[in-house]
Amino acid sequence: MKSGCQVADRIGELEIVGNIVPHLWYKNITFSSGKAHFVAITLLADIVYWYRPTMIRDDSGMITGARTKFKGDMLQKSYQAFADTYGFTKRQVKDGIDFLVDHHLLVREFRTISTSSIILSNVMYVQPVAENVKRVMDERCNVAVLTSVCPPVTLERTSPFIPKEDQLRQGEGAPEVDGGTYTENTSKNPSEKNEQQRAGECPVTFYKENEFGRLGSYMQEKIKSWCERLSDSLVVEAMKRAVEQGKHYWSYVDAILVKWELLQVEDVNDARSKEDGGMVEKVYNRPSRSTGRKPIRTELLPDWFTEEGIVDESNDEDFEVEKAKLMAELEAFRELKSPHTSPVFE
Known about the structure:
- By secondary structure, the chain is α+β, with helices and mostly antiparallel strands.
- It has helices spanning about 5-10, 25-30, 40-50, 80-85, 90-100, 130-140, 165, 190-200, 205-210, 215-230, 230-245, 250-260, 270-285, 320-335, and strands spanning about 55, 65, 75, 105-115, 120-130, 155-160.
- The chain has two domains: about 15-185, no CATH class; about 200-285, Arc Repressor Mutant, subunit A, CATH 1.10.10.
- It has 14 helices and six strands.
């Protein structure tokens, strides 16, 4: 059926697939100032898209069922995956997710996933709160008045062993393991948070996110070898120190790890304590600096000069004779140069 407008008919033939943003979201999902939270709106639209079921059709085109676009009970995506898709910074994405969680539009969980080759910690899963999403779509209901309609959220869940191919579906909402699935858990107090971050960060992911270089099979083996010789947390700590010094290359990290291995470091705290002790020892044994004065030059005295600074005349019998000659020559020279001496004419 044609509308009579050629452009409208062509647009109608397009199969547009992707996010749909209801107009009311720009009025209802806002900051306290009333300004629309565009990052939160974009993220929520993306998450809702992944939760929209995909219709299953038979050969004749009839709908026979529906399925989700991802496997598992919740969508798995990282902050970095959202940032790469929409051009936001990782910090903007985290703030947007925090906003949606705080205003009861989103449920977020951090899980530990066991695969056949590695254990992944702090993997983020998200799920929209359907009832509240409907309210901000159908009514003029600002997020400030929304209340929780779901049970308390489990902020961290440890799942049993799940094969990698069954847990993550490539290209359908769940990025690969090497694509940055790790994110920090901000729900704990600072001390617990720091311990969890050190224990949960993946060296391979940290290597990629901080651009240490191309991560090939050789570098993966190097990182794996150091993780086995020391620990994951120490390898990540060494890379953090390299980043702080602006040295984004593996040789610097490798030197730190070699030193820690020689010191028999057990964990991050042990590394700090042993290095602090070494610095104290260096300062204690450091030679004192001079005040800027040049060193006093000392001349070696000849054997004939005594310690009292007096010439030892007893060792030379001709000393008095030589002295008398020099004194006579000196007197003659003085008389010759004296202005009171009149010239003698013969």
